[in-house]
C-alpha cells in the first residue's frame, strides 16, 4: 500500500545521540548503582516518570540532586543530561523539507521537557525543529511512551491517520514490533544506517 504518512522517532533517527556522554557523567555524579542502560538508553524509574509527564523538570532535577555524590548542582545535571544530544545533520533537514511536500510527516518520541527545549533549537533557520513536521507527539506531553500501543494510537487518532498508509521509523526493535502489530509499515534504523539514504530508495 502506498505510504501517505511518515512518523519519525527523533533520537537515533533524526537527532544523532552519544549516550556515553550522559551515561559517563551520571556515573560520576551518582555512581554505577543509580545508572543503568536498557537498549542503549538510560533506564530508571525517575526517567520513566519524567518522560510520561508524571513529574516536572523541577521534581526530576531535585531527585537527581539528592542522589549526587559530589554536590553537583541542577545546572551540572542539565548540562550532562543534554550532552547526549549531538547534532541534526543538514542532509536530514533537507530530507524532511522534501518529504513535507509529498507526505504528512510527524514525530513520535520518548522524550522530556529539558530535551525538548534543547533539541527544538538545533536546526539553523527554524525557530523549532518541530516546525519541519505537521505535528510532534512527545511522550511527556501525551502521557505515555513507546512501545505502549497507546502512544501509537494517540498519533493515529490525533491526526486522523490510517496505520496501513503510515510508515513508522524508529531505532528500537521493541517499538518497531508494536508498530507492526498495529499494522503500520515500518523502517528499523539499525546502528550505522542513515535514514535519509534509505528513504530515498524506499519512497
What does this protein structure show overall?
- With 203 residues, the chain is of the alpha/beta class.
- The chain folds into two domains: 5-16 and 87-202, HAD superfamily/HAD-like (Rossmann fold, 3-Layer(aba) Sandwich); 19-82, DNA polymerase, domain 1 (Orthogonal Bundle), CATH 1.10.150.
- It is 45% helix and 17% strand.
- Strands 7-6-1-8-9 form a five-stranded parallel β-sheet, sandwiched between helices. It has a two-stranded antiparallel ribbon with strand order 2-5.
- Helix 1 runs antiparallel to helix 4.
- It is globular.
- The termini are close together.
- 32% of the residues are buried.
- The model has no long low-confidence stretch (mean pLDDT 92).
- The end-to-end span amounts to 12 Å
Cα-atom radius of gyration: 17 Å
Which outline best applies? globular
The strands making up the biggest β-sheet line up spatially as 7-6-1-8-9
Amino acid at each position: 500500500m502506498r505510504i501517505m504518512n511518515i512518523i519519525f522517532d527523533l533520537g537515533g533517527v533524526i537527532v544523532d545521540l552519544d549516550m556515553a556522554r550522559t551515561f559517563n557523567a551520571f556515573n560520576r555524579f551518582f555512581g554505577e548503582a543509580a545508572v543503568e542502560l536498557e537498549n542503549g538508553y538510560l533506564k530508571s524509574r525517575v526517567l520513566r516518570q519524567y518522560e510520561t509527564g508524571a513529574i516536572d523538570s523541577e521534581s526530576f532535577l531535585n531527585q537527581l540532586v539528592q542522589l549526587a555524590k559530589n554536590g553537583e548542582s541542577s545546572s551540572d545535571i542539565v548540562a550532562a543530561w543534554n550532552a547526549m544530544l549531538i547534532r541534526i545533520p543538514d542532509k536530514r533537514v533537507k530530507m524532511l523539507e522534501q518529504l513535507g511536500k509529498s507526505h504528512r510527516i510527524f514525530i513520535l518520541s520518548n522524550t522530556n521537557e529539558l530535551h525538548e527545549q534543547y533539541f527544538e533549537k538545533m536546526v539553523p533557520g527554524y525557530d523549532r525543529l518541530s516546525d519541519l513536521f505537521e505535528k510532534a507527539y512527545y511522550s511527556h506531553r501525551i502521557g505515555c511512551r513507546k512501545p505502549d500501543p497507546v502512544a501509537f494510537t494517540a498519533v493515529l487518532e490525533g491526526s486522523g491517520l490510517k496505520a496501513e498508509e503510515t510508515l513508522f521509523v524508529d531505532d528500537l526493535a521493541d517499538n518497531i514490533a508494536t508498530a507492526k502489530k498495529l499494522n503500520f509499515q515500518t523502517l528499523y534504523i539499525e546502528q550505522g544506517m542513515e535514514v535519509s539514504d534509505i528513504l530515498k530508495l524506499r519512497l
